[in-house]
Amino acid sequence: MSGAPLDAVVVGASLAGSAAALALARSGARVALVDRASFPRAKTCGELLSPDGVAALARLGLGEEVRAAGAATIRRFALVRPDGRRVRGRLPAPALSLSRERLDLLVLHGARRAGAAAWLGEPATSVEGDLGSGFRVRTPGRTLEARVVLGAWGRYSPLDGRLGRPFFGAKATLFGFKKFLAGEAGRRFDDQVVLHVFAGGYLGLSLVEEGRVSMGALATPGVAQEAHHDFDRLLGRLRRESPALAADLDGLEPEPGPALVSEPVHLGSRGASWGELLLAGDAAGVVDPWTGSGMSLALRAGEAAGELLAEHAEGRVATASLVREWDRRWRKVTGSVYFFSRMFRPVFLGGAATSLVGPLTAPLAGLAARLTRGPA
Ligand SMILES: Cc1cc2nc3c(=O)[nH]c(=O)nc-3n(C[C@H](O)[C@H](O)[C@H](O)COP(=O)(O)OP(=O)(O)OC[C@H]3O[C@@H](n4cnc5c(N)ncnc54)[C@H](O)[C@@H]3O)c2cc1C
User: Residue 100: enclosing H or E segment and its boundaries?
Assistant: First the structure.
């Protein structure tokens, strides 16, 4: 890369960031990704990619690759409460399930193939500047200059603290956990995602590539504290309290190593920009994991941001209207997802609401699935 400022630096090379860099680079613009992580890397996530996310991957030219990587197709869901009551339903369209190790790497490779540079294993420690004079993104190893910065650094980054975003350091609303399981018994999850709701959280089970089962859970701070933030301890309790969960886990062995524990999860919309920084994916807002739409929102918002920044690089969108225009397009991508994910939250976060899992839940969950997704 020459010394001239880049068209854009994208901070965060996960789904939102790499989708943006891919869409931008394939228009011929000069873009660099920066991520503190090296890829592949594991991620606290249930790994279910909803139909609109599958469609976004296809538009990004990655549809075949994601299937070749071994993604499982998921058409059905089941909601299970601790007393074993189970309701089943069909997803509006097929979803895919692939480990984040594979999916994120695949999108990142797509961005690099399109021409994006990537600086990995380097945290962005500061972002300074404005749209008028340009931005500087510093890592311990370099300073990158760019006309625009897109923040795709996920739900909770030290950068949020440095930029003074209000949720940073606030008491966490929820905690996420994740572990992989292995064993022939995983075939019982063929074609379906299973969500066990319990008082103060839920736990999802979904088949990914090579017969592995991804087990992701979300818990309120009370539940997480009671288990000393130890997922094995929490799982032990849930298994004892729910014979249905014990039966679903029967014959499955956890893969070696500790469970992943997520950064604090603060749910809700935060907005498409912070000052003159554009934001996409979880950095712009965190949707309830039960919707299975966080990844698709990240891909779709990343794609839309990349397209807008390409228009900006070509002079078709004025710098003065960039933030406003991104806000408009981001709202179009996200639609009513935050509203509906909040509305249905009590059903899925359990407590007294676990009793709502009954005959009406399948249509309700089906409706919720439609309302919290974009066009497939
Ligand atoms: C328990 C749980 C289960 C979930 N299950 C599902 C599910 O089944 N389906 C679904 O669709 N969604 C699910 N989600 C949500 C999903 O994981 C997120 O919505 C998605 O990962 C957002 O993608 P992103 O690209 O915006 O951010 P992320 O994937 O979080 O990526 C952010 C990137 O930014 C990097 N970064 C952070 N700070 C810096 C820095 N200072 N410098 C450089 N890089 C930085 C990180 O290393 C990371 O790679 C779940 C979430 C939780 C908590």
Answer: helix 100-114
